[in-house]
Amino acid sequence: MRIFIFLIQRSFILIFKSNNHRKWLSLVYIIIFFLLEIMIVSNNSFILEFDHSIQNILGSMVSPINTKVFSTITFLGSPMMDIIYLLLIMFILFKRGKKDSSLWIGFVLISGNIIAFLVKMTVRRQRPLGKIIPASGYSFPSGHVFGTTLVILTLIFLILPTIKNIATRKTITVLLITWLIIVAISRVYLRGHFPSDAIGSALLAGTWWECCELLYLRYYDSITHLFDHRN
C-alpha cells in the first residue's frame, strides 16, 4: 500500500503554471456556450438560418466520392477512435514517466464525456433530416467534435511542447486545427449534426479543458499534502 501511495505521490508533479488569463478564457467559453445553447433550445431564428445556410452549401457538394471521404473522416474522428487516441497518449506518457499528465488526461476524458452526455440529454435536440449515414441519439453536442477537440488540445499542450523546433510545432498545430475543422465539416456534410452543434461541442470541450486546468491548480497542493500525510 505504501508503494502504491508513493507512486501516486510521485505522479503529481505540477503540469501547468498558474495563469490569470485561464479564468477569463474559461469564463468567455462558458458564456458563449450557454448563449448558443439557449439560442438552440429556443429555436432562435439566427441559429436556424445559420445552420440552414451551411447545410445548403455542403448539400450542394454531395457526391459518392465526397460521401466516402467524409465517411472515412467521421470514422477516424468518432468518439470510439478519440478514446483510443487518448488512451494511447496516456500510455505513452505513463511509460515515459509522466504519470501526472497521464492521470490528468484520464480525468479530463472521463469527466468530459459525462458532461457532454448530460448536456445532450438535457437539450435533447433532434438530428437533422436526410442523414446520409445512420446516426442515433440526440444532436447537441457532437461527440465527434467534442472528443476530437480534447485530443487536439492534449496534443497541443502536452505533447507538442516536447518538440524543440518552433516552426515544426506551429506547423503541426495548424494541421491539428485543420483536422478538427474537417471532422466538424464531415458531421454536417453527412447530416449527423447541425453546424451549431459542432461549434457548441468545440466550445464545451475548450471550457472543460480550461476548467480542469483550474481544478488541477486549485487542488494540487491539497492532493499532494493528502498523500504526504498518508505516507
Number of helices: 9
Mean pLDDT, nearest integer?
82
Shape: globular
Q: Would you list the SSEs in sequence order as H and E? A: HHHHHHHHH
Helix content: over 70%
- Structural domain tally: 1
The largest sheet, given as strand count, sense and whether it forms a barrel, is: none
Number of strands: 0
How far apart are the first and last residues' alpha carbons, in Å? 9 Å
Report Rg: 19 Å
Q: Which structural class matches the secondary elements?
A: mainly alpha
Strand percentage lies at: under 5%
Parts with pLDDT < 50 across at least 5 consecutive residues: 1-16, 223-231
What does this structure look like?
- It comes from Companilactobacillus paralimentarius DSM 13238 = JCM 10415.
- InterPro entries: PAP2/HPO (IPR000326), PAP2/HPO_sf (IPR036938).
- This is Phosphatidylglycerophosphatase B.
- There is one protein chain.
- The protein has 231 residues and is mainly α.
- The chain has one domain.
- It contains 9 helices and no strands.
- Helix 1 crosses helix 9 and helix 7 packs across helix 9.
- It starts with a helix and ends with a helix.
- The relative contact order is 0.17.
List the helices and strands and how they pair.
Elements: H1 2-11, H2 20-41, H3 45-59, H4 64-76, H5 79-95, H6 99-123, H7 143-159, H8 166-189, H9 195-230
Summed up, what is this model?
This protein has 231 residues and is mainly alpha-helical.
Brief descriptors of the model:
single chain, 231 residues, mainly alpha, 9 helices, disordered N terminus, disordered C terminus, PAP2/HPO_sf, Phosphatidylglycerophosphatase B
